[in-house]
Amino acid sequence: MAELLPLPSRPVEPDPLWRHLVGDRLRRMRHERGETLAEVARRAGVSVQYLSEVERGRKEPSSEIVAAILGALGGTLLDLTAGVADDLRATALAPATLQAPGAVLALAA
Predict the structure, then answer these.
(1) In the CATH scheme, what is the code of domain 29-91?
(2) Residue whose C-alpha is closest to residue 102's, from 18, 6, 30, 5
(3) Which of 1, 2, 35, 104 has the smallest CB count inside 10 Å?
(4) How many of the other CB atoms lie within 10 Å of CB of 95?
C-alpha cells in the first residue's frame, strides 16, 4: 500500500504593494521615453528626490501627484492602471503559486 506524505507547501507570497507596482511602471514609462528623472520631475512640478522615491516605491503619492507625473510622461491613468493590472496578473501566474498548499504525494511502499 502506498504511503501518503504531505508535500512541503510553499509560503504564500503576499501581494506586492501598490506603491511598488506604480513606481516600477512609472520608471518603465520614463525609460521608454529615454528621459531623466530631472526632466520628468521638472515638468511634473515635483522634486527629483521625490520622483526617485516614488519610482522606488518608498513614497505613496497622492492622486494629484500621480496625475502630474503621468502628464509629464504623456501617459494616462488608464495606461498606468492597465500596466499595473498586467504586472499583477504576471505575478499571480508565476510558477511558485501553482502548487496548492497541503497537496500530497503518494509514494509506493
Answers:
(1) 1.10.260.40
(2) 6
(3) 1
(4) 7
Q: C-alpha grid cell for residue 39? A: 526632466
Q: What residues are paired with 105 via a beta bridge? A: 5
Pairing of strands 104-107, 3-6: antiparallel
Locate the domains of the chain by residue range.
29-91
Contact between 4 and 102 (Cβ < 8 Å): no
**C-beta of residue 101 within 8 angstroms of C-beta of residue 9:** yes
